[in-house]
Amino acid sequence: MAMTTELAGGALYRLMTWLSPAYPVGAFSYSHGLEYAIEAGLIRDRDSTRDWLHDVLRFGGGSNDGVFLVSAHRAAAQGDRAGLREVAELAAAFAPSAELALETGAQGAAFIRVTRDAWACDALDWLIEDWRGPYAYPVAVGAAAAGHGIARDRALLGYLLGFAANLVSAAVRLVPLGQSDGQRVTAALEPTILQTVARLGDATLGDAGAATVLNDICSMLHETQYTRLFRS
Predict the structure, then answer these.
(1) Which among 1, 27, 37, 58 is positioned nearest to 141, based on CA atoms?
(2) Tens digits of per-residue pLDDT, 167-195?
(3) Domain 30-224: which CATH class?
(4) Which of 22, 138, 139, 152 is the most exposed place for a label (fewest CB within 10 A)?
């Protein structure tokens, strides 16, 4: 079978590299409030982990990250520098707690730094020239994907899978879950992620908004949690 133009051009290779757990953005340091939810007994087994992550992806931070990634990709692909800055500003202001702001901003800054060094493109240059930061992680990924000709839906799918996989990994360590149960959770989230990609394919900034108040509260309470493994 002949390779598609995208695969032959290296775009898929780049996307897989950027969203790999090995890419040095420090994703392993963050739990998105999950650590406190587990401490409080809100998440205690495979089913409650699956349900919590479904809601975060469908109604919370995962969905908002998708809106910002899609909007950043669209602006960068159109060469709309003012629009890209608008996305970056709103995404930076949208984090509901100090720790979630740290989570997205630290990963975004690390992603930009590493990617500009190894995979430079105009879109990332525009981002740092026009906005002093902080740089939300999905905005950085969306801009880079557009700059390298990676299709918006593929970038969004890869990002959301990476987002979910990182939280499943945190749950495996904290609940704790076995590796098999962790993979069962990831498999169960496939429809949620695919539906979110389909829903957000043409999203605009007006679609940003979340309804996962309990997750946001957990991220705030995590700031003073006595024993912690994660930064959020």
Answers:
(1) 27
(2) 999 999 999 999 999 999 999 999 999 99
(3) mainly alpha
(4) 22
